[in-house]
Amino acid sequence: MTPQEAGRSRPGPVRGTMPEEGAGPVLVLLHGGGPGVDAASNWAAVRTRLSARFRCLAPDLLGFGTQIGGDGTAGLRGPRAWAAARARQVLTLLDQHGLDRVHVVGNSAAGGAAALALLAAAPDRVGRAVLMGGAGTGPLPRTVPFYDEPTRTSMRATLGRLVADESAHRDLLDDLAGVRLARALRPGAEEAFRSMFAEVTDGTPPVDPGTIATPVLALHGERDRVQPVEVSERLAAALPHGRLEVVAGAGHWIHVDRPDEFCTLVGEFLSA
């Protein structure tokens, strides 16, 4: 099945994957990697609009949401190992749904890195891809977010860095801080999160963007406080069929700061 062939009957729900929405080409949404994240909360601002144009699948990635301690996580250490495991998770999901080929949107250091690993491992399974916020190709954070001070105040501050203007999203951030605090404190969540950011010099090799033949749109917020725009500039330049769009006025959460522009850019690129 290609992204353009969406008429096949749908299987029952897969554990850890939001119920499918929409019709049309199949789009897999891979969420970001902040503490306490899951698919539902990550894509809430844009999923309804994207579902007007695409048949959307949004799984909880390994190490988050329903997938804390999930199959395939034992012994994982370092961002490259986690990205490769999540790429395998997505391939399993596609097989479970009988999908041969899909489009992908990958957010930041979790979903973006997983999408990049998927493009390297199984290029025939992805038609087009959108990578957000540098897709994990920038430097690791100097300190692990939130867990050195696991409080609601710390969670709220962590979330505040993801948008360009906190005052424009005050209610959303306040609500999310409580929801994500509870998830981030679940058994096994901290251990998994810290292992994702461990510096590892051997093990899983890095993905070489120069080997990826898939058309890729790199999206970056002009006012991103997590990763500088230069990270996505380097990524887009290294991709043989890469294109960069810097979204004016947006922070790391482009889809929250500029949801209309985000959906338009994604829709036009994936439908080209």
What's the short story on this structure?
This protein has 272 residues and is an alpha/beta fold. It has helices spanning 39-43, 47-51, 79-96, 108-121, 152-160, 170-184, 189-196, 229-238, 254-257, 259-270; strands spanning 26-30, 55-57, 102-107, 126-132, 216-221, 242-247.
> Can you summarize the main beta sheet?
6 strands, parallel
**What value does the Rg take, in angstroms?**
17 Å
**Broad shape:** globular
Q: What is the average per-residue confidence, as pLDDT, rounded to a whole number?
A: 93
Following the backbone from N to C, one meets helices and strands in this order, namely EHHEHEHEHHHEHEHH
* Share of helical residues: 25-40%
Got a strand count? 6
User: Strand percentage, roughly?
Assistant: 5-15%
- What spatial order of strands do you see in the largest sheet? 2-1-3-4-5-6
Low-confidence stretches: 4-13
Number of helices: 10
Q: Please report the distance between the alpha carbons of the first and last residues.
A: 18 Å
Class by alpha and beta content: alpha/beta
Layout of strands and helices, then pairs:
Elements: E1 26-30, H1 39-43, H2 47-51, E2 55-57, H3 79-96, E3 102-107, H4 108-121, E4 126-132, H5 152-160, H6 170-184, H7 189-196, E5 216-221, H8 229-238, E6 242-247, H9 254-257, H10 259-270
Parallel strand pairs: 1-2, 1-3, 3-4, 4-5, 5-6
Helix pairs in contact: 3-4, 5-6
